[in-house]
Structure formats: C-alpha cells, structure tokens
Amino acid sequence: GTAPIGIDDIELATSHHVVRLDDFAEANGTDPNKFRLGLGQDEFSFPAPDEDVVTMAAAAAAPIIQRSGTEGIRTLLFATESGTDQSKAAGMAVHSLLDLPSQMRVVEVKEACYSATAALQAAVGIVTRSPGQRVLVIASDVARYELDTPGEPTQGAGAVAMLVSADPKLLEIEPVSGLNSADVDDFWRPNDSTTAIVDGALSVTAYLDALTGAWSDLAAQGGPAIAEIDRVLYHQPFTKMAKKAQVHLAGLTGEDLDTEIVAGADAGSAGAGTAAANSAAASGPAAAAGADNSVATGPRDTGLATSTLYNRRLGNSYTASLYAGLCSLLDHDEDLAGKRIGLFSYGSGSVGEFFTARVVPGYEQHSHRLTVIEALDARVPLSIDAYRALHAAELSSAEDVTTPKVTAGPFRFAGIKGRARHYERA
Ligand code: CAA
Question: Whose CA is nearest to atom 54 of ligand 1?
Fold first, then answer.
C-alpha cells in the first residue's frame, strides 16, 4: 500500500508506589549522586500488591480505546518480560477488562526488553496487508532484581500502549531496519525465579555490541546516514545507559552528538523536569536556526536530555522503556514536525534493532505531558522498610488469596482463586 503506517496514539501508565533513590541511598549509606549522576535515575515505580503488568497495561490502553473505539482492531500484541502465566497471554485479561470484541487474536511476545519492537513491526505488517485494520500493541513490565544487588536501584514499572494504523497521527514508521541477534547470557530470568539474573558489566557491552551490529546493518540495508536522523532514542535500562549508547554512536559515526542527560538534585520534580526540557528544547531550534554561531558549532541536539525525563522517574520498564522515552520526547520537544527519529531497541539475550520514523505534523496536539507528570507525582512513596517487605512478599498460585485494595488506578488484581489470577475494575 501507499499510505504511511505507524503510531496513531500512545499512552503511558505506571504503578501506585514509588521508591525515591535518595531514601534508598540514605538507607544503604550510599552517596545519592551514585544514582542521580552515576546511573541517571531519581526514583523507581513499584507496584502495589493489587497491581501487575495486566493492570498497568489496561490503564495505558483504556484512554486509547475511549478516544477511538474498537473499530478495525482485530489484534492485541502484549510484549512483556514479566508475564503472569507460562501459557495464557497476559493480554487476555486486558482484553476482558477493556471489553474488547471477541473477534480478535490476543498473544504475548517475548525477548527480554526488545519484544515490543517485534510487536510493533508485526503490527505494521498486519496493517500493510489490511490497511483498514488497527493493531493494539502494549508493552508492560515490572523490573525486579534481587534485594542488595547492583541492579536493585534500576528496578521500575510501567506500561506503554500504542495504536498502530494507516495514516497515523503521531509517527510514520519507515521500512528499513538494522538488526543484530547474538546468543549471550547477559540478563535472563529462569522459569523458577521472580527476579532477573544479570551480569551487569557484560550486559552493558552486549548492549553496545548490538548497537554496533544494528547500526552497520541499517547502513547495509540502505538506511539513512546519521546526518539525516534528527533525534535518537535508546532503550533506557537506566538513563545513563542512553548516554553511553549516544557516546558509542558518536564514535561509530564520527558525528558530534549531544551527550548530556538531565542531571542534578532537582531533576526529580515535575517543575524542574519541565524547565530542563524547555532549556533542552530551546537549544535545539536555536542551533538549527543558526541564530547564534557559538551555539551552532556545539554538539548536535538529538533529544538525549528530553527523551530521558520520564524514565529517570519510572526506572526500568523493560519492554516499555524505549517507548516511554518516545513519550517523553513527543511531550517535551516542540520542534519535531516532519523530523526523523532513530530508535534503538535492545533486549538481552540478545536482539538489537535500529529503525527510523517520521514525526507527523500536528503531533503536539496530542501531548499527554500533564497527565503523565500528574501520574508520576501522584505515586505514593514507600519507606525503604515497606518497600523491602513488599519486594519479599511472593504469592504462590497454590493458595487462594484476596488482595488488599491499595491501588488508586482504574484496574486491580483482585487475587488468586483455583490457581487462576483474577482482575476487576477498581
Ligand atoms: N557520584 C557520581 N557517579 C558515581 C558515584 C558518585 N558518588 N559512584 C559511582 N558513580 C558512577 C560510576 O562511576 C559509574 O559510572 P560509569 O558507568 O559512567 O562508569 C556508575 O556510577 C555505575 O557505578 P558502577 O560502575 O559501580 O556500577 P554498579 O555496581 O552501580 O552497576 C550496573 C551498574 C551494572 C548497570 C547495575 O546497575 C546493573 O546490573 N543493572 C542491571 C543491568 C542493566 O541494566 N544493564 C544494562 C544493559 S542490559 C539492558 O539494557 C537490558 C535491560 O533492560 C536489563
């Protein structure tokens, strides 16, 4: 077909609770700058006992369905690393909570943090074949590492829902992708473990190797040169990783790219985040317009600071992380119309994909900045003791339980009965 295909609508949801890394640092006797500057993280979202990937996913998808109905939606692709069952797709519970039509296919897709990108590309394929159809893609994860391990401060929770259609309102996905797969044990989660196993140092080099491979494949496939890409988004297990990736890409291409992520003690508040984004956004157009030669000769602004604002407060959301970065960019950069964005998706194990998309003029009319910041601000902080107790609490499917009502979100995990998980509208 000739019609462009891509992301028509996008929404981000997160959990009820938050853990502040300043509190975490104090409890552990660590310098708070280890997290704010060393990892580029201020906080992490943490689910209440009556929340999981299903409740966050339904919360992200509900406003999209409310806005545009279910017409033509025949596929729901649910990407997650932290699924709730070995057999049944977590998307089935979302399908039920949102009263979606029964004339649909609902499946779960897995490859660590990468699988949302596979789902997105599959959705583009479906819409290419049947331009009248739309596909609901949901990425939802709870990132959990063992207590008292280096990964612990990079935990997090979040969901991004995207509606893929022809003639999209936000992003037109371009056909060329750079791909890289390599069998590596950098991060994984055995079937009998509720926390991820990770070789931290190896995971960082495996990520950068995948970027090298995907970038060179993009060139081999005839993709755009770095100078033809206006903004770059990366999978953000912690936002400092996006900076490492950006430095790496600058090395691969010889291009002078921005490498500053928002940093400092005030970056955690909504007001400061917005101010930082405004200044980041302000330097872009000014440099592009060449109004000031001293600005124009600095590194090119590809949105690194702007795209990391949400994630430094969410923590890692695995499959959703790259797309939370996309939300942050779309919500804060006012100069994106017609611009080309490069997106690097990485999933341990490992798969890397570098693809590109064009921003549709008028995208800024669909900003959800205030709703997202409100949701981040509304999270209820946990004391470190309360957080550790919640982290340690694990439900066995063998015992029937009714979960306490805690979440203020629209959907809740009601409990386990007869070994099956049950959900309800809150
Ligand atoms: N002030 C400022 N900076 C400080 C500091 C201080 N007081 N103390 C330490 N730092 C800096 C260090 O210099 C270091 O910076 P660089 O990375 O630039 O060298 C940074 O803080 C991290 O400190 P360490 O090197 O001591 O590393 P760590 O023990 O904190 O572990 C980690 C870091 C390995 C990433 C760990 O957080 C981890 O295992 N995370 C989970 C795995 C992960 O996210 N891997 C990313 C790639 S894999 C992937 O992307 C898939 C996925 O989602 C999991």
Answer: 237
What distance lies between CA 196 and its chain's CA centroid?
18
pLDDT-derived band at 286 (thresholds 50, 70, 90) equals very low
Strand stretches in 167-246, DSSP E: 171-181, 187-188, 197-198, 231-234
**3 state DSSP class of 421:** strand
Contact (CB, 8 A) for 156 and 19: no
Tokens of 86: 């070995």
Q: How far apart are CA 334 and CA 343, in angstroms?
A: 19
List, in sequence order, every beta strand (DSSP E) within 36-72. Answer: 43-46
Of 191, 207, 292, the residue nearest 246 (C-alpha): 207
Cis omega (within 30 of 0) for bond into 350 = yes
CB 388 within 8 A of CB 216: no
- Check if the beta carbon of residue 339 is closer than 8 Å to that of residue 267: no
Residues with CB under 6 A from ligand 1: 31, 33-34, 37-39, 113, 150-151, 154, 187, 198, 200, 203-204, 207, 235, 237-238, 240-241, 316, 318, 346, 348
Letter for the amino acid at 132?
A: G
Clarify whether 248 is annotated catalytic.
no
Annotated catalytic residue 422: no
pTM above 0.80, yes or no: yes
Separation of alpha carbons 21 and 44, rounded Å: 7
Residue closest by Cα to atom 27 of ligand 1: 150
3-state SS class at 117: helix
pLDDT one-digit tens code per residue, 295-315: 557 899 999 999 999 999 999
Clarify whether 113 is annotated catalytic: yes
Outline where 357-396 has alpha helix (H).
Answer: 369-378, 384-392
Q: What are the strands of the beta sheet with 17-20, ordered from one edge?
A: 43-46, 17-20, 380-381
